[in-house]
Structure formats: structure tokens, C-alpha cells
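Technical note accompanying the year-one report. For the benefit of new consortium partners, we illustrate the data format agreed upon in the data management plan: each record pairs a sequence with a C-alpha cell string. No post-processing was applied to the example shown here.
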Amino acid sequence: MRIVVTGGSGRLGTQVVRRVRELGHVAVPVSRRWGINLTTGQGLGTALAEADAVVHCASNPWRPRGTDVEGTAQLLAAVAAQERPMHLVYVSIVGCDANPYTYYRAKAAAERLVMASGLPATIVRATQFHTLVAALARRAAIGRTDVGLDAAAQPVDAGWVATELADHALGRAPDGPVRALDLAGPDVLSVSDALTAVRAHDGRPATHHLRVPAIGGTLKAFARRTNLPGPRARIGGCGFSSWLTRQPVPSGH
């Protein structure tokens, strides 16, 4: 099979490309690096020619309107214009429709575009990646003071998510747009749990703890744990602590 991967040079996209090729199929990574502009649609039609599926990993948390919303609209139009519309697999975020954070609103808007398209499409929501949770924990570890929030995460390994996305793309396409089971890792971590694990890994013990109240819609949504999956989620990949033991200690720590 021939699988196109948008955002093919990004952290998740590169792993989807690798997985598809490991399984003996053709993976075509697309991004501006290869002269394809998702936000304008430039080069999309040519890239999609003769494809059996497209895994839509392209995303921009800092400018989501262009990449995540307008880019998804361009991709849907390009897929619909093909003589034989291929299966679109769109990766989204657990709880994006229950949090007013700008990036999450953009992901939810993109989901609505996919569902309204009528195309054979599968939306796959995943929880935050281990890399993001570790990065956020380090930002909250200021000197020897931990800045805590009443929130939690169920982080997931990006490599396992990539495998799941590849399996969807290589499997049977649905007749129309559908939601697949959410993807999540095996461990639910409080902010305190994540801080403790990261500090132990980095060799920087904390001596003070500062609790931050959930102020504003975004923090309140995280405090309500809207970013955690429901009971029917598909759980897999390594846990956060196991993943962390395989990571290098950041320079300067």
C-alpha cells in the first residue's frame, strides 16, 4: 500500500513513516521540506496521487489556525478531488472539545471538518506524549521549588501511537468518518508525580512546593481532568517512568 504522511518530518510523522516502511509498504512523507504547503494546498494533489491512505500528523501548536484548521480543510478538499478518495487518518487530542485552550479548540474544529466531510476518515485521539509531560514538568521545577497544579495526565509513548496510526491506515477504510478508540499510556500521573519522577531522573531534588490555583478556563479544564481518556480507551506503550529511564539527562542539570 501507498501511505502519505503529512507532517512527515515531525516527531510523530517520522515514526509513522518508519513504521509503514518496516511493514513493507510505501510511505510518502510530505511537508514544506518536500515543497508541499498544507496551508495553501500547494503540491497536495500530486502527493496524494495513487495513495491508498493519508495519515494527517501535521500540526502547529503555536499557529494552529493555519496548519490545523485551514490545512485540514485543504487536505480534505485534495482528498475529495481524487478519482478514488483514500482513507484519511487524523490524529487529534483527548479532551480537545472540552478545553478552551486555543490549540485544543483548533484540533476540535479540525475534527468537525473531518466529520462533516463524508469521506472515509478515522479520527484517532491520543493523550499527551511523554516528551511533552517531561518538558512541562521541567518548566514547573524552578530551582528547588516545584510549582504544582491540581491536574493529571495519562501520557503515551509517541512510538506506540505511530504504530496504531499506521495500523489504521493499512487496515480497512470505513464507509464514512468515524471516531476510533482514544489512545493512552498505562499510567495516570498527577503533576506532583511527574515532577518527582523528572527531578529524580535529572538529579535535582525539590525542597519547596508551591500550589497554583486553577484560574481561567484552560487550567480549570485540566483540573477537571478533561484530558484523561474514558473507560473504553485503548491502553498501550511503555509507562512514563520506563520511558524516562531511557532518556538522557538534559545538559545543565
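Partners are asked to follow this layout when depositing records. The longest helix spans residues 64-81.
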